[in-house]
Design goal:
By secondary structure, the protein is α/β, with parallel strands linked by helices. It has helices at 13-23, 42-52, 71-79, 100-107, 123-132, 137-141, 144-149, 188-193, 207-217, 244-260, and strands at 3-9, 31-37, 59-63, 86-91, 94-96, 112-115, 118-120, 183-187, 221-224, 231-233.
Length: 261
């Protein structure tokens, strides 16, 4: 089964470089990557092109005009370039572990989506990694306890205790909170059956929870990827959240209407 990894990005080629390096170091090589660029300058395109010649898997690039934060639209655009039967959505500032693809593959299951979690890196540690320019997971994992103590990372146990199939992963009831589009997986057929992301969600917030809700509404159950698929989320300034409440209200109205019906 070919897995398609959709990596959304916007004007962070230095972070994207580390992410692509980490994807190029996977233990599972049956996947492709599509970079979904939400209107970056040419620097990002040039970076992707510099990786394409030596990337172990197929690496594609799509771009849309910079008309504001349109993550939903650019992910839908990227999906049109995908050939895999299973999708993993990832952000361009989220570095992955060497077994990231393998772990997601082990968790994929018919009629289920997987909502992964993340480890937050602080500003100082993020700057050091970007300045170094070369991603080395073994070096990162060294002295993780010390990194936790000095605040470089917000958790570390997840790197030492990993589980595949376990009852705790299955949600009895749907919960729309704590869904991260930066680490989310589902079957292509399920994604297409609901016409993908709702592109009316513009600006930061809740397009990922909306996708998960609509998948759940057609019978796709939520499954946790915690203690298995954690990504390393590089620090960045907080995005403009001017539309966050509007998007949240739209999501909650959809949920209310669905249950009322």
């Amino acid at each position: 089964m070919l897995i398609s990894v959709i990596v959304s990005t916007y004007n962070r080629p230095d972070a994207l470089s580390l992410v692509l390096q980490s994807l190029n170091q996977q233990t599972d090589d049956n996947f492709e990557v599509v970079v979904a660029d939400d209107g970056s300058t040419e620097d990002t395109r040039h970076l992707v092109e510099s990786f394409q010649a030596n990337f172990q898997q197929s690496l594609h690039y799509v771009w849309q005009d910079d008309l504001g934060f349109r993550a939903a639209a650019v992910r839908n655009l990227a999906v049109k370039q995908c050939t895999g039967s299973y999708f993993i959505f990832l952000d361009g500032d989220c570095i992955v572990q060497p077994d990231f693809i393998a772990r997601h593959r082990s968790l994929c299951e018919n009629n289920h989506m997987v909502t992964g979690s993340r480890v937050l890196l602080n500003k100082k540690f993020t700057s050091a990694l970007i300045d170094n320019k070369v991603w080395d997971f073994s070096d990162f994992k060294r002295s993780l306890f010390s990194k936790r103590l000095n605040g470089s990372v917000n958790k570390f146990i997840n790197f030492y205790f990993k589980f595949n199939f376990s009852g705790f992963r299955y949600y009895r009831n749907f919960k729309w909170r704590r869904i991260k589009g930066c680490n989310f997986a589902c079957w292509r057929c399920d994604f297409e059956s609901i016409d993908g992301y709702d592109e009316t969600f513009e600006g930061w917030g809740h397009e990922d929870a909306d996708l998960a809700f609509r998948l759940n509404f057609i019978g796709i159950k939520r499954k946790s990827g915690a203690f298995s698929t954690e990504v390393l989320h590089l620090h960045h300034p907080e995005n403009n959240r001017a539309k966050a409440e509007e998007n949240k209200s739209k999501l909650l109205q959809k949920i209310s209407n669905a249950f009322r019906g």
